[in-house]
Amino acid sequence: MKKNKWILPLLAIVLGAIFYILLTQVLHSCPIVEGEKPMKCNWTKEALIGLSYLIIVLGVIKLIPAFSKFVGGIAIAEMGIGIYGILLTKVFIGTCKTETMVCNLELGPGSLLVLGVYILLSLVTFVSNRKME
């Protein structure tokens, strides 16, 4: 694997780790009130934490030399994962309906920003992999 082929997978791993840290420390969902059912933004946050693990794992897989032939396909899958994360945040589960809730001020915009950067990084990985072949 060429030296410059290591940069984009490492960026994906770092982005996945940053996304995990943001989700667990910075991007808050609505508080869970004891005895009440959690709001749907809490489930969105849990699903996004799972996606951050997947982002890290796929970045590690791209670093393994035996999988260097599959980097382009993995990059396409990563774009799909980014789109799925956006759909989780906006369509499938979503955040609370009240626009002033903390999940709509932090979790929604922050996750959309990170996932948008991830989709762009995956696109760059795909295009650069096609040029190197």
| Largest sheet composition | none
First-to-last CA distance:
12 Å
Radius of gyration: 16 Å
Shape: elongated
Helical amount among residues, as a percent range? over 70%
Fraction in beta strands: under 5%
Specify the structural class.
Answer: mainly alpha
Number of helix segments? Answer: 4
Instruction: Give start-end ranges of low-pLDDT stretches.
Output: none
> What is the residue-mean pLDDT, rounded to a whole number?
91
Number of separate strands: 0
N to C succession of SSEs:
HHHH
Fill in the keyword field for this structure.
133 residues; mainly alpha; 0% strand
Question: In a nutshell, what does this entry contain?
Answer:
With 133 residues, this protein is mainly α. It contains 4 helices and no strands. The mean pLDDT is 91.
Verbal overview:
By secondary structure, the protein is an all-alpha fold. The chain is built from four helices and no strands.
Topology:
Elements: H1 7-26, H2 40-63, H3 71-92, H4 102-132
Helix pairs in contact: 1-2, 1-4, 2-3, 3-4
